[in-house]
């Protein structure tokens, strides 16, 4: 096991009940990194974050310092947009940072904006997070009054307004170009990349850096302690520490900050200091390693370190740092349906393979669960999946504007490959299952034969 | 129901002043309208359209995309039970079923007394605290049927003090003091920020 005593970087103040106040933040070293950064040339701050190899914590894992260097030179103004839209099933960490240490985020935003040359910053917080909204609003009000935010910050030439913005409920808005559309007052539908890479053409078509809450929460520590101290932690291609939420059938579900790339899935799921093993001493059946969109892992993956490249190579991803554990009593078809239902409900409806495909996947899975499945349904599921993401490969090929469509394919491919017999058992409950298929002679019902689909919950389309 | 009250219109103008383009204030202003009336009344949406400078149809187009905006009146308390994977594994379906029985409504409906609207929703980012719910966007973790019944009693008796009426999103608002404001960055200004001038790489090293 590799349970290390790496320092806490983003949760260092969590032991204080008043960590969200300016008084506590200042008493624990807060805003010292901002002072240090303001004494450096902006480009040197970018270099420092680049040298730290801080990977983005929003899902894609792109190096933050490199992204900061992507804005086309000489094009002004630039904007910073903070992604606080956390909503992928299993994912719970950004809300915690927003509620418990909002000044750390504000300081990260200030340093990033100073380094990149952003003239205004928008903190886009998921609308359903009332306490996070309140804590950030209170922290910003304090920070303005103390001279950390606004005009001529700490007496320097650096001026920046940070505007707290409310979301209104739509998972897809977490995708960075949809986030920008939403911030422009539109329906939150993703834009096509290229040409709409935010760093080049983002908010109001100006250069825009979009970063995740946890990513920016690391920045004050990096500036205060130096890139070297940060990159001394973690594995070769995954530096620092990272937050992982462990949920589902574990004895002690929770969010843990661990050294990145060193701790293994087994450590995190079984160690008494972390999730404490499967509850009721049951056996592990499967786990989702990186949020609902990641392909599932099993027993044989437990000893992999939580390290980006290793997990990518093993056929999944760490995504948003969300591990969902399923024990042996879990119905694989039900779990698969539940994850797919989420993506079907949250598809924005802009492209056909995603809008139609996720809906079909959901409906076919539903009828299998309801004992109405047909023998041809497994092939049909894979056929629909193949239309969304040709070849059903990892990393997925995309026929869609954004990765949401392929996200719905991961659980289907994972569950059918591993637990085909469970699907077949459900289908066998339908007395007409085989007969219906043989009667068509084609061996496969066409998706068009399904009734008009009505996805659960969402109404974005 | 009504246009924004003079008081809310003043808040709306303050919010508008922070954005480089008025249209960006649309969602925050819709929240304000919903806070006033508990849902999005037609007159309020028209007023918001005037304030942000777009048509009422555009306002409706945006509003109808987002789950939180209610185009019809809802109960004083909206109870959202998460039924996504992490919560489902720990009994969310059973909890929702219990709630339906207890309240005598199906998910998506409001109780006859207008007190509670029940909804089954997607992940609310409290997956390690499953099964969980939100009432007017305030969390309740690791729910049991008994805790649910207690919550309903408390709501109806006005004892849930941390839960404002539906529509009130956050009880603390950001205020940017005029003497500290840097001001919105006009996208068409082409203005290089003062602290970047002379920085040889333009921050894009
Ligand atoms: C469907 C979809 C949903 C996403 N949701 C989120 C989210 O809730 N929060 C987030 O930070 N990033 C989310 N992302 C990733 C963002 O597009 C973007 O990569 C990220 O915010 C960049 O920040 P980072 O580089 O600091 O990680 C999502 C991406 C997709 C495709
Ligand atoms: S893949 Fe789905 S969510 Fe993404 S743009 Fe297309 S329809 Fe919208
Ligand atoms: S799955 Fe229920 S809160 Fe995330």
Describe this structure as you would to a colleague.
- The complex is a heterodimer of chains A (461) and B (205).
- In chain A, 39% of the residues lie in helices and 12% in strands.
- Chain A has 18 helices and ten strands.
- Chain A has helices spanning 22-27, 32-38, 42-52, 64-68, 94-100, 102-116, 130-145, 176-183, 213-225, 227-231, 265-270, 308-313, 332-346, 352-369, 377-388, 404-407, 409-428, 433-440, and strands spanning 78-84, 118-125, 161-166, 208-212, 234-235, 238-239, 241-248, 254-259, 284-288, 322-327.
- In chain A, the strands form three sheets. Chain A has a four-stranded parallel β-sheet, sandwiched between helices. Chain A has a four-stranded mixed β-sheet with strand order 8-7-10-9, with no helix packed on it.
- In chain A, helix 6 (102-116) packs across helix 9 (213-225), helix 14 runs antiparallel to helix 15 (377-388) and helix 14 runs parallel beside helix 17.
- The longest helix of chain A has 20 residues, at 409-428.
- Chain B is an alpha+beta fold and 205 residues long.
- Chain B is 35% helix and 9% strand.
- The N and C termini of chain B lie far apart (55 Å).
- The chains are: A alpha/beta (461), B alpha+beta (205).
- At the A-B interface, helix 3, helix 6, strand 2, helix 7 and strand 3 of A face helix 2 and helix 5 of B.
- The structure holds flavin mononucleotide (FMN), iron/sulfur cluster and FE2/S2 (inorganic) cluster.
- Flavin mononucleotide binds next to strand 4 of chain A.
């Amino acid at each position: 096991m590799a349970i290390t005593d790496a320092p806490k970087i983003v949760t260092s103040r969590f032991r204080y009940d008043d960590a969200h106040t300016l008084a506590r933040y200042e008493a624990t070293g807060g805003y010292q990194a901002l002072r240090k950064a303001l004494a450096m040339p902006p480009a040197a701050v970018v270099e420092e974050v680049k040298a730290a190899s801080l990977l983005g914590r929003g899902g894609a894992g792109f190096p933050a310092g490199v992204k900061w260097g992507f804005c086309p030179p000489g094009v002004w103004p630039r904007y910073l947009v903070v992604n606080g839209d956390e909503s992928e099933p299993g994912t719970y960490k950004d809300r915690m940072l927003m509620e418990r240490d909002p000044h750390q985020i504000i300081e990260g935003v200030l340093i990033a904006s100073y380094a990149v040359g952003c003239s205004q910053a928008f903190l886009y917080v998921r609308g359903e997070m009332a306490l996070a909204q309140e804590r950030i609003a209170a922290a910003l009000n304090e920070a303005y009054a103390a001279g950390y935010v606004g005009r001529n910050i700490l007496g320097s030439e650096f001026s920046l307004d940070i505007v707290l913005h409310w979301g209104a409920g739509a998972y897809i808005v977490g995708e960075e170009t949809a986030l920008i559309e939403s911030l422009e007052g539109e329906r939150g539908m993703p834009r096509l990349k290229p040409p709409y890479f935010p760093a080049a053409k983002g908010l109001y078509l100006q250069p825009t850096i979009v970063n995740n809450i946890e990513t920016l929460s690391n920045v004050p520590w990096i500036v205060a302690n130096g890139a070297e101290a940060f990159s001394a932690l973690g594995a070769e291609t995954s530096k620092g520490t990272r937050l992982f939420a462990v949920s589902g059938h574990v004895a002690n579900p929770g969010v843990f900050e661990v050294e990145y790339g060193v701790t293994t899935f087994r450590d995190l799921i079984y160690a008494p200091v972390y999730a404490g093993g499967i509850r009721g001493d049951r056996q592990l059946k499967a786990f989702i390693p990186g949020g609902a969109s990641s392909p599932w892992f099993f027993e044989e993956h437990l000893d992999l370190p939580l390290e980006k490249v290793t997990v990518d190579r093993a056929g999944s991803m760490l995504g948003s740092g969300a591990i969902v554990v399923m024990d042996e009593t879990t119905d694989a078809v039900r779990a698969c349906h539940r994850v797919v239902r989420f993506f079907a409900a949250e598809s924005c409806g802009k492209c056909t393979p995603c809008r139609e495909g996720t809906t079909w996947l959901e409906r076919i899975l539903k009828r299998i669960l309801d004992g109405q499945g047909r023998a041809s349904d497994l092939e049909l599921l894979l056929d629909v999946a193949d239309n969304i993401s040709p070849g059903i490969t990892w990393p997925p090929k995309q026929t869609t504007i954004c990765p949401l469509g392929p996200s719905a394919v991961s659980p289907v491919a994972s569950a059918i490959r591993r637990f085909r017999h469970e699907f077949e058992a459900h289908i066998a409950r339908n007395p007409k299952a085989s007969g219906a298929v043989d009667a068509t002679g084609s061996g496969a019902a066409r998706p068009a034969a399904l009734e008009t689909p009505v996805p659960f919950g969402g109404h974005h389309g | 129901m009504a246009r924004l009250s003079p008081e809310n219109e003043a808040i709306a103008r303050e919010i508008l002043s922070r954005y480089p383009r008025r249209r960006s204030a649309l969602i925050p202003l819709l929240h304000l309208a919903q806070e006033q009336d508990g849902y999005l009344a037609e007159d309020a949406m028209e007023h918001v359209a005037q304030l942000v400078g777009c048509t009422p149809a555009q306002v409706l187009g945006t509003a109808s995309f987002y789950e939180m905006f209610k185009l019809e009146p809802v109960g004083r308390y909206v109870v959202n039970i998460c039924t996504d994977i992490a919560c489902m594994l720990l009994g969310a379906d059973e909890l929702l079923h219990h709630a339906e029985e207890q309240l005598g409504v199906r998910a998506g409906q409001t109780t006859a007394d207008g007190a509670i609207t029940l909804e089954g929703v997607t992940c609310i980012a409290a997956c390690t605290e499953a099964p969980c719910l939100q009432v007017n966007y305030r969390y309740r973790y690791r729910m049991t049927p008994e805790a649910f019944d207690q919550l309903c009693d408390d709501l109806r008796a006005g004892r849930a003090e941390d839960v404002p009426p539906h529509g009130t999103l956050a009880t603390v608002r950001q205020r940017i003091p005029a003497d500290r404001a840097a001001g919105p960055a006009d996208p068409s200004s082409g203005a290089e920020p003062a602290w970047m001038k002379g920085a040889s790489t333009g921050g894009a090293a």
